Structures are given as C-alpha cells and as structure tokens.
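Homework help board

Subject: predicted structure for assignment chain

Our instructor gave us this sequence and asked us to write out the predicted structure in token form, then describe one feature. I got the tokens but I'm not sure how to describe them. Can anyone check?
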Amino acid sequence: MSGQVRETMDGIAAIVIAKNEEENIAACLDTLRWADELIVLDSFSDDATVEIARASGAEVRQRRFDNYALQRDAALGMTRKEWVFFVDADERATPELAEEIRHVVSQRDFDGWWVPRRNYIFGKWIRHAGWFPDHQLRLLRRGSARYDLRREVHELAVLNGEAGYLENPLTHYNYDSVRQFRDKQDRYTDYEVRELFDSGQRARPWNLVLQPLRQFRWRYLTLRGYRDGWRGLLLSSLMAYYEFVRYWRLWRLQRA
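My token output:
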C-alpha cells in the first residue's frame, strides 16, 4: 500500500493493531464501519489477517513489532484525521459507543477520552476484581497525543490537554482459557520486569511472599472478586501468582 496519508484533517480514524488475528479481525472491523477511515496496522502476520482486513474494507499498513508503545505511536502518524480511535482485534465497538464517540469529538474540552471495557474472561463478563470498568485511553486527538516510549507494555498515551471519560464500553473478548491467560501474562511480565529494573526498583526476599498475598487480597476481597464466583477466585489467584513471577524474575535479573 502507498505510504501517503489522506490530507483531510477532520473525522475519526479507527486503527486496529494486529498480528495473526484471522479469527477476530473481520468481526472487529464490522463494528468500526462508522469511522471515517479504517486502518489495520499489521505486524507481518503469517495467517490470513491481511487478506481478510482488505476484504473488509480496511487500509492495511505493515510494520515490524518492537513493543506496544512504539507500535501505537507509529500508528498515530498513519492518518491525517483529527481523532484516532484505537481498538484491538479482540474488541468490539457497540453502536451506542460509536454514537457517543461521534458526539464527543465535536467538543473542544478534551484531547482524549478514556473508554471503559467490558471484559469477557472464561466465557463470562467479569464485573469485579479490577476487570471493570477497566478504562483505556483509546480515543485521542492526534495532534495532541504521543505515547510514553519508556512503557513497552500497558502503554500510556500522553496528552497536551485533559482527558474525559466515556460511558459506553468496548466489549473485550479477553481470555478463553487459562493457557491463553498464562501465555499473554508471561509476555507482559518480561516487559514489566525490564521496566522495573530500569527504573531502579529491586526485589527483596519478602516481596516474593508479601506482594502475591497483597495482590490476592486486593483483587479478591477489596475489589470483590468473590462476587464473580469461581472465575473471580481463579483470576485473583492467577494475578497473585504472576505477582510472584514478576518479583522472582526481577530477583534473578538483579542477581545476574
């Protein structure tokens, strides 16, 4: 595809960052057809993601994946639309959310909007344990936004101005299985450990015990994960386990 971008400044570009998402990309793009421009930034998928995206009417750009912050920051430069709405391939925008976005971008009060997410994990909407409303800064005024490149995972947009909060959520089909959860958390944890180490944080022996316990208590009791039944218990336990993994890997890194 041509590297040139359209000159039109007004409107909304919906951008999906994807790799090997042939099972999700068509359904995701179907919920974004209301946008003025539809772009898929693909990390050189080796499945049918690119073909499906083009057949669904999206403009496909390709860029090798460095980390999440760099990928989103690069995506901001791939459109000339005033607003960028970032969506992941496993997310769906409802008609109510689309209508709300159309309304708020006509206002001048904010340079970005936090979007709530309704996370479906292990087949059910998880309402507690920190999984809802799970606000994500996804709607950005392009000329007033950039990404903090020091945060390689759980990337954060930096705005020139203020951000507001939308009411209607994205639907996020997050984890179908424990294996999928563990695969993704393993990747995230590697990034997070490097960030902790580079920021000067060091693990202490007691962190290996106290931090997982605090994580479990916070999610299961304080954030009422118990109200989501066995899923809340399992998710709180898994997050506590990965708190242990994070500090264990940090301990090994600093000793090395």
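Reply (TA_rk): Your tokens look well-formed. For the description, you could write something like this. The longest strand covers residues 12-18. That's the kind of observation they're looking for.
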